[in-house]
Predict the structure.
Amino acid sequence: MIALAQSTFAIIVVIALFGLFVLMLMGSFMRARRNSAALVTTPQRPGGVPAPPPAAPKARAVLSRRDFFRGGLLTSLMVFAAQFGGASLAFLWPNLKGGFGALITLPDNLDTIKNQIQQQRQPYYFGAGRFYLELYTGDGANTEYAGLISNNLMAIYQKCAHLGCRVPFCEQSQWFECPCHGSKYNKAGEYQLGPAPTGLSHFAVKVDGSTVKVDTSNIVPGPPRGTNTIHQSPEGPFCVGGAAGG
Ligand code: FES
């Protein structure tokens, strides 16, 4: 919802800026046309008698100083609008094409994803959506994770609950281990060690037939410290040492 609101806001700002610049540009053109029309209008004497043709036309400045500054200002604003619009589109592009912040349909089907998790002994990672899919067999499917799990698939946000580093999965320990300050989470993303205040956040998984979708528009905060619904001890040496307790 928050990501959607940001997207909508950025689109509105871009459209408003673009409209403003178009209006300014049109106003400038209309003023320029009015000025040139006034110059070519034949002057008339009182009573409607046409005035004699003017003598030799005076040499006119090609561009006045005011026009020069106005043109410079308009050009600067248009360059700014183009840069801002481009940056906004680049920022929104993943959302516009169904990446992080949207309801994502995975390219692999349910069986493929489950088989990959089991055979490779690590979660299915989907970088464009910034999440892992893991098989969940704990006892929190209808409590801590109600509405988030489907067909035993759980989606875990890759962002560390401490300061936001991307948390990789350690094949040796079978836990998620943050390389930044050593926070560690079990397979379900539940806090185990280190400075993180909570477990990893989650997304809702929706399975429709064999199609798997993950709703990354709503980040569900991780469960508090002490939550342990899968009771998984580390299954080997840690990948990241120096976990600070606390
Ligand atoms: S950011 Fe992960 S432990 Fe600090």
Notes: Residues 103-220 form a domain with the Rieske Iron-sulfur Protein fold (CATH 2.102.10.10). The first strand starts at residue 103 and ends at 105. Residues 160, 162-165, 178, 180-183, 194-196 surround FE2/S2 (inorganic) cluster (CB under 6 Å).
